[in-house]
Design goal:
Strands 3-2-1-6-5-4 form a 6-stranded antiparallel beta sheet, sandwiched between helices. Strands 10-11-9-12-13 form a 5-stranded mixed beta sheet, sandwiched between helices. Strands 7-8 form a two-stranded antiparallel ribbon. It is built from 12 helices and 13 strands. The chain has 2 domains: 165 residues, Beta-Lactamase; 165 residues, Reverse transcriptase/Diguanylate cyclase domain (Alpha-Beta Plaits, 2-Layer Sandwich). α1 runs parallel beside α6 and α8 packs across α9. β10 and β11 form a beta hairpin. The longest helix has 24 residues.
């Protein structure tokens, strides 16, 4: 744990914000974030680990204390383990004593052994872009009291990366993601905000369904990049064909589609989600006759959430539970579970 003067914190963040406001390139901001963290906490290792949107593998974008060979070769799968849970739920990982939980320590560790470690998600608009990693040679060199500072640095990194991607995206000025022919996430968020405003005004209900292709990486490895994209486009088409005109579909992640089901109760949304799951399971995709499945998380307004933040957080956590419980499943939280953090599936196929 480190104690900083208020003025020192302001100076660190002001320097990074100045750079952030003057560039559309995220690399310089990443370097500054890591430089400040290493100086403040005397870390052995610090890195910005990002999800590659084209492969959904994690890679080290910028790092300190890592060899060139390790950085070049580092390629970690997204999973439902500790790092996967960090990315899906947004709950930081704090290890104050590496000997206390050797399994967690091995799973989180980058190149060198450490005494203590912190991993904080890098999140924008409820999409986790990666995580900020820092470790210290001493036990208790980093602890939960440092999370507030690390979270601020992670937010700056998130804003820089999002600004860079938005700049590239806005060059095309297109609302449609042409790999899937559904809306890009930004326009979909606009639609979601409009639905919340209308639902609050007129007492309406609606639901979100977040779908993830269960074996997409294996399909890409087995059949190749082009075929995996064809499958994703066909799958999105299957989902769109079963939507009403008042519903919506957007691309949430690389192989994740988010659906808005208007005028729908939680029960209706769960039923629709399971119907879609079954349709995908029984559909053959691409000329290569590929079969796949999807995991689905469901959240509903206002039964489970009353704000866009609560709605998106709930559907993300529900999808994580659907994946963790075996995939090819639909998961939604009961209201009581939301209050008491008990995780039991609504539907378990």
């Amino acid at each position: 744990m480190i104690h900083l003067k208020h003025e020192d914190c302001l100076n660190f963040f002001s320097e990074i914000l100045k750079v952030l406001s003057s560039t559309n390139q995220h690399e310089e901001v990443f370097h500054l974030v890591i430089d400040k963290i290493v100086r403040i906490f005397r870390c052995r290792t610090c890195a910005v680990v990002i999800v590659d949107p084209s492969t959904e593998y994690l890679h080290v974008e910028t790092g300190y204390g890592l060899s060139h060979a390790f950085t070049k070769e580092f390629r970690r799968k997204l999973a439902t383990g500790s790092i996967g849970k960090l990315l899906w739920t947004g709950v930081p990982i704090v290890i104050t004593d590496s000997d206390a939980d050797p399994t967690l320590t091995r799973e989180v560790q980058l190149e060198s052994e450490f005494g203590s470690c912190v991993c904080v998600p890098i999140v924008v608009d409820h999409r986790t872009l990666g995580y900020l990693y820092a470790d210290h040679i001493d036990k208790n060199g980093l602890d939960s009291q440092d999370l507030r500072i690390f979270s601020c640095f992670a937010t700056l990194a998130a804003l820089a990366l999002n600004k860079s991607r938005l700049y590239d995206e806005n060059l095309r000025l297109d609302r449609i993601d042409h790999e899937t022919e559904v809306e890009k996430y930004g326009p979909f968020l606009e639609r979601l905000n409009a639905n919340i405003e209308r639902a609050q005004k007129f007492g309406e209900r609606f639901a979100l369904l977040l779908l993830d292709v269960d074996n997409f990486k294996q399909i890409a490895l087995t059949y190749g990049y082009d075929t995996s994209r064809v499958l994703l486009r066909e799958l999105a088409g299957v989902l769109k064909s079963r939507l009403r005109g008042i519903d919506g579909a957007g691309r949430y992640g690389f192989d994740e589609i988010i659906l808005l089901q208007a005028n729908s109760s939680l029960h209706d949304a769960i039923t629709r989600a399971d119907d879609l799951r079954a349709v995908v399971e029984n559909t053959v995709f691409t000329p290569k006759q590929i079969k796949t499945t999807v995991s689905v998380g469901v959240s509903a307004f206002p039964e489970q959430a009353e704000t866009i933040d609560e709605l998106l957080t709930t559907v993300k956590n529900a999808l994580f539970e659907a994946q963790r419980s075996g995939r090819n499943r639909v998961f939604s939280f009961h209201s009581a579970q939301l209050r008491h953090d008990t995780l039991v599936p609504e539907i378990d196929d």
